């Protein structure tokens, strides 16, 4: 459940922004210094490091749920948040109390002000990560499932000290200004986090990316596994209520009718990847993981904002943070699989300026889209202006009605006045803003 009283978290986030260096600044020296002054809290628990381009959050959430069901005190750290910063850290599925956040932040802030020049302070993401590592250590968690930010060797999360498993979802183009302009280049950055002698698991594909993964595992003498080569998944049922599938693994496991409430066709692969990660962790790392805890964990996993189905004013609304071509392709597949044949949909959309907007929109072309409402995320400079987005949308969808409504509440009212299914997508920032309006 999301805490509706998020004002205190907003104030803390503003305070962090004031103290932090602005923007994205790749490098580990600032974060390493900060953590050392805090007593290196990141070394005090085992961790699963989750990286990739799409599917990180739902995979991490599913695995964390399995670990909790296995009797392990489990922290889950993800980003970005949808409504308030407190969502980024959960322990055994529950949000951490705001006063614990505040206590940890005050300690981190004091260290930063006393030991860092203003121009060389950690970024906001680094500071939030440091706060969460400190809380995890103070709460004596058994294991932390930590989703990387941008991901790669210079990501703040790469300072985790006791990584039992590096888990990689799909690898595709994203953050090209920092990670590289080809999947292979990005893969080199992402796979650089694989730890010597530890376990590593990659979703798989394409061949050149798999080659990078294998080479890195060999260099680090790591136990490497490629999900697509070692596992077989057979979907059984897909609906707006979730997915059911069978899973066979190279370790001799046969899971019939695994079920998750996470909807969307892509959740078959994401949750199966989490299940196989749990199987690997059950070998010599967390022996309490078993078949029952894997089943129970997948069934209890929740991940808002990713093919999340809600009812609003008698209408079915699907919230999905898809924001790049791969994410939009997955959304389109899920809609085709879960909705009645030839069902018209209304799309409410906002996208960020730095994304491949045209490439993402093209992945939706096979859908029966009656109307697309272009809006923008209030107060966010990265958000593409609704009028500018509409020009691109109209070029890709010349036969669909394209409406422009920069004001988000009016855009939502416009979307929900029509009959049929409503899809809200294009950015997790948009999903968060919509949830605030809805009072989630």
From TrEMBL:
Q: Does the keyword Membrane apply?
A: no
Query: What sequence ranges are listed for the domain Mur ligase C-terminal?
Result: 305-427
Determine if Repeat is one of this entry's keywords: no
Q: Which reaction does it catalyse?
A: (6S)-5,6,7,8-tetrahydrofolyl-(gamma-L-Glu)(n) + L-glutamate + ATP = (6S)-5,6,7,8-tetrahydrofolyl-(gamma-L-Glu)(n+1) + ADP + phosphate + H(+)
Q: According to the UniProt entry, what is the EC number of this protein?
A: 6.3.2.17
Occurrences of domain Mur ligase central (ranges): 52-275
- Check the record and name the Gene3D superfamilies matching this protein: Mur ligase, C-terminal domain, Mur-like, catalytic domain
InterPro entries assigned:
Folylpolyglutamate_synth, Folylpolyglutamate_synth_CS, Mur-like_cat_sf, Mur_ligase_C, Mur_ligase_C_dom_sf, Mur_ligase_cen
Q: Which UniProt keywords apply?
A: ATP-binding, Ligase, Magnesium, Metal-binding, Nucleotide-binding
- Identify the SUPFAM superfamilies for this entry: MurD-like peptide ligases, catalytic domain, MurD-like peptide ligases, peptide-binding domain
Q: Superkingdom of this entry's organism?
A: Bacteria
UniProt-listed Pfam families: Mur_ligase_C, Mur_ligase_M
In which family does this protein belong, per the annotation?
Answer: Belongs to the folylpolyglutamate synthase family.
Name under which the protein is recorded: tetrahydrofolate synthase
């Amino acid at each position: 459940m999301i805490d509706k009283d998020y004002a205190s978290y907003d104030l803390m986030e503003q305070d962090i922004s004031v103290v932090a260096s602005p923007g994205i600044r790749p490098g580990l020296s600032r974060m390493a210094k900060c953590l050392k002054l805090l007593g290196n809290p990141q070394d005090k628990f085992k961790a699963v490091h989750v990286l990739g381009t799409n599917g990180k959050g739902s995979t991490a959430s599913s695995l964390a749920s399995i670990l909790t069901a296995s009797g392990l005190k489990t922290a889950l750290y993800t980003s970005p948040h949808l409504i308030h910063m407190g969502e980024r850290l959960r322990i055994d599925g529950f949000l951490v109390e705001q006063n614990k956040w505040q206590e940890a932040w005050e300690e981190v802030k004091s260290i930063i002000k006393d030991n860092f020049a203003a121009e060389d302070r950690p970024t906001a993401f680094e500071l939030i990560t440091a706060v969460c590592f400190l809380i995890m250590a103070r709460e004596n968690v058994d294991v932390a499932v930590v989703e990387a930010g941008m991901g790669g060797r210079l990501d703040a999360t790469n300072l985790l000290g006791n990584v039992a498993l590096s888990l990689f979802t799909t690898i595709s183009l994203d953050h090209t200004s920092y990670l590289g302009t080809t999947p292979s280049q990005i893969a080199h950055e992402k796979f650089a986090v694989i730890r010597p002698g530890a376990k590593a698991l990659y979703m798989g594909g394409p061949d050149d990316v798999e080659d990078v993964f294998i080479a890195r595992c060999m260099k680090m003498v790591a136990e490497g596994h490629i999900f697509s080569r070692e596992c077989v998944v057979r979907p059984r049922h897909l609906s707006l209520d979730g997915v059911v599938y069978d899973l066979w693994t190279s370790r001799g496991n046969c899971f019939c009718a695994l079920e998750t409430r996470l909807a969307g066709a892509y959740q078959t692969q994401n949750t199966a990847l989490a299940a196989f990660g749990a199987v690997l962790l059950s070998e010599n790392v967390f022996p309490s993981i078993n078949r029952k805890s894997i089943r129970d964990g997948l069934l209890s996993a929740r991940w808002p904002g990713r093919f999340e189905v809600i009812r609003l004013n008698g209408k079915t609304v699907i919230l999905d943070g898809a924001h790049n071509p791969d994410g939009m392709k997955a959304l389109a597949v899920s809609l085709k699989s879960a909705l009645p044949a030839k069902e018209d949909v209304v799309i409410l959309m906002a996208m960020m300026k730095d994304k491949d907007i045209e490439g993402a929109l093209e992945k939706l072309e096979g859908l029966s889209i009656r109307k697309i409402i272009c809006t923008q995320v209030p107060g966010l400079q990265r958000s593409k202006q609704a009028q500018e987005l509409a020009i691109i949308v109209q070029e890709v969808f010349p036969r669909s009605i394209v409406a422009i409504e920069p004001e988000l509440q009016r855009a939502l009212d416009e979307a929900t006045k029509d009959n049929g299914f409503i899809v809200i997508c294009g950015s997790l920032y948009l999903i968060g803003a919509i949830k605030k309006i809805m009072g989630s």
